[in-house]
Amino acid sequence: METLRYLFRRVLRNMRQSPFLCAAAIGTVAVSLALLAFFALVVVNVQDLVQRWSQDIQIVIYLDTPPPTTTLENWQREISAFSEVAQVKYVAPEEAFRRFQQRLGDEGDLLGGMAQDILPASLEISLKSEARTNLVVDEVVARLRANPNFADLRYGREWLERFSAFVGLLKAGGFLLGGFLLFATLVIVSNTIKLTLYARRDELEIMALVGGTTLFIKAPFLIEGAIQGACGGFLALGGAYFLFEFFLRAGLSQVFLLPALTELRFLPFSFQVLLIMAGVLLGFTGSLFSLRKLVRI
Amino acid sequence: MIQLFNINKAYQKDSAALRDITLRVPKGEFVFITGPSGAGKSTLLKLLYCAEKPSRGQILINGQNVTRLSANKIPYLRRRLGVVFQDFKLLPRRTIFENVAFPLEVQGRKRYEVSKKVYQALQHVRLEHKLQRYPLELSGGEQQRVAIARALVIDPLILLADEPTGNLDQESTWGVMELFKDANARGTTVLMATHDRELIHSFPRRVVTLEEGRLTGDHQP
């Protein structure tokens, strides 16, 4: 117990004695993890978007002219009869215009002078969740195309597939970048801590001479590294949140024409914990590498 | 207490720091280890507190063979030794009290016990009134007395001193020697490396002479 108390007193004393080096180590970890967090934010939200889009309207049939009511009702009945179809919704030109205006948000008034029936009418078909596979979607589309009125048929599968592939690439790039960043941070943190240790070489030498065990000598520095890493992690989280609130939200909303900013989310709790733990591990490992060379009994 | 059998130490292939040293130091003895610079005095002491390992031979301290002691066992040996150096080796950013308390804290002693022993050790070297000062505020002689207090605070079996008076004036030297004599009188075995002949004449004790790594003399007063 006494040893533990002494250990923590040493940790705090060490950090007080080298505030600049301490701040440098924390700062390095914070910057590195903040970059990773920012990247993760983009990937998480883009993935969410892909997920949402794939659950939205699966097939859209654009109509040259708005059909008469009876024809429309027949078509809706015909399509609803497909076992794979969950819902068929008719979107009139005016409704389509209103939606587009909403999507543009603040820039919606650009459409002020235009006619409200400029956009085509459409039939939006949602498939049942069990039918949302590429094979089934292809089959339903083939059946729909049998009706000559449904020539202009769009379904987002290809686009979504390409976008999903892009997200996959983004993730892979993120892992690679993350790997390099973490390695670079480890080297920098290790060297920063090494500087701290060089400044305390006399202390380390005397500790060894008066009978300090390797663990006794190393423990405070390892704990110090872990604490610095944790502080860096928390800073990174705060920085990422700041970036998210003031830049990322607005930026991504504009890029993807999202109607509401609240659709974007910050990193899930598990990611946040992982970020802090990455900081702790970085600091601890950096310390370990530095101590290996400098502490010799 | 200390036994060396055919000790050889070479730092490089062609140069031996110690050659074929066999030496026995009984408990409670005071031994000067003398010789010119480069004779191997410091090397001999380093082998005793396991800062170096001998190339050949055996060392026994208090019956324990320390020749090939593993790194995780060395600290426990050193907790029974007191070592004093020519350059004092005090921590400049710690107070005198903290410097002397260091060996006890390393051993995990309780706070009240540490305070008591440190105060007693500093009283013994007549520096208890400078508890809260820092080493650089003290003279060379005072710093060495603090180093001796640190070495003695753990009640060591053996006190090793490597040229402890090398940086001191005559008055301080005499003060330091009185402390060593006193520790020896209380049962501590003392080995002191020095090339100061006047000191050896003034304090007649067993003298072991080294020259070019060999033991060339071993005289009782």
| Oligomeric state, counting identical vs distinct chains | heterodimer
The DSSP helix count of chain B reads 7
Number of strands of chain B: 10
Largest interface: A-B, 18 and 26 residues
Strand content of chain B: 25-35%
The order of strands across the largest sheet of chain A is: 2-3-1-4
Category from helices, strands and their pairing of chain B = alpha/beta
Structural class estimated from helices and strands of chain A: alpha+beta
Proportion in β-strands of chain A: 5-15%
Q: Largest sheet of chain B, if any?
A: 6 strands, mixed
User: What is the terminal separation of chain A in angstroms?
Assistant: 24 Å
Q: Please, how many helices of chain A?
A: 9
Summarize the structure.
Chain A has 297 residues and is α+β, with helices and mostly antiparallel strands. Chain A is built from 9 helices and 4 strands, in the order ααβαβαβαβαααα. The longest helix of chain A has 43 residues, at 157-199.
Describe it for me?
- The complex is a heterodimer of chains A (297) and B (221).
- With 297 residues, chain A is α+β, with helices and mostly antiparallel strands.
- Chain A folds into two domains: 2-53 and 160-294, no CATH class; 59-155, Alpha-Beta Plaits.
- Chain A has nine helices and four strands, in the order H-H-E-H-E-H-E-H-E-H-H-H-H.
- Chain A has helices at residues 2-17, 19-55, 69-80, 93-104, 134-145, 157-199, 201-209, 214-256, 269-294, and strands spanning 59-63, 85-91, 121-127, 152-155.
- Chain A has a four-stranded antiparallel beta sheet.
- In chain A, helix 2 (19-55) crosses helix 8 and helix 2 packs antiparallel against helix 9 (269-294).
- Chain A is elongated.
- The mean pLDDT of chain A is 81.
- Chain B is an alpha/beta fold.
- Helix content of chain B is 33%, strand content 28%.
- Chain B contains seven helices and ten strands.
- Chain B has helices at 41-48, 74-78, 96-106, 111-124, 140-152, 170-185, 197-202, and strands at residues 2-12, 15-25, 30-34, 56-61, 64-65, 81-85, 158-162, 189-193, 206-211, 214-219.
- Chain B has a six-stranded mixed beta sheet, sandwiched between helices. A four-stranded antiparallel beta sheet of chain B has the order 2-1-4-5, covered by helices on one side.
- In chain B, strand 1 and strand 2 (15-25) form a beta hairpin.
- In chain B, helix 4 crosses helix 5 (140-152) and helix 5 packs parallel to helix 6 (170-185).
- Classes of the chains: A alpha+beta (297), B alpha/beta (221).
- At the A-B interface, helix 1 and helix 7 of A face helix 2 and helix 3 of B.
